[in-house]
Amino acid sequence: MKHCTKVRKAFVLVLILTALSFQSGCLYFKNHPGGIFSQAKESGSFQYDILGEAEGTSSEFILMWMFRVTPEISYDDAVNEAIRSKGGDNLINITSWREKNVYMTGTVNVIHVKGTVVRYLR
């Protein structure tokens, strides 16, 4: 009888530890610097107003590390998001970096861009 209760307690303990290990917390995080660029798009003018600093992101989720669930990450989408946030025409003095977050259910990749939004004078 004592043996059965010990086995049962051990089984419950193993079950609890297994359940805790399968939570969807981040297992791995990596940040990669992307680079520094002078401007995102070709400019038609050298005169502009500075609208301020902005940041844009683009992300993708890959289920079970094989099946893409969301659209692929795009540097252009991240740049356009930053420009739209201030209502400008271009992004200058850009810094970019990538993140990779690995979970039990899949991987999330994110690209970040940060820079100064400008509006060209016409």
If you had to describe this structure to a student in words, what would you say it looks like?
- The chain is an alpha+beta fold and 122 residues long.
- The protein has one domain (25-120): Translation Initiation Factor IF3 (2-Layer Sandwich).
- It is built from two helices and five strands; from the N terminus they run H-E-E-E-H-E-E.
- It has a five-stranded antiparallel β-sheet.
- A hairpin with a 3-residue loop joins strand 2 (48-63) and strand 3.
- The chain is rod-shaped, with a radius of gyration of 23 Å.
- The relative contact order is 0.26.
- The mean pLDDT is 83.
Provide the structure class.
alpha+beta
| Terminal CA distance | 89 Å
Rg: 23 Å
Strand fraction equals: over 45%
Helix content: 25-40%
* Low-confidence runs of at least 5 consecutive residues: none
The biggest beta sheet reads:
5 strands, antiparallel
Order of helices and strands: HEEEHEE
State the gist of this model:
With 122 residues, the protein is of the alpha+beta class. Helices cover 26% and strands 48% of the residues. The longest helix is centred in the first third of the chain and has 20 residues.
Topology (elements, then pairings):
Blueprint: H1 2-21, E1 28-39, E2 48-63, E3 67-68, H2 75-86, E4 90-102, E5 106-120
Antiparallel strand pairs: 1-4, 2-3, 2-5, 4-5
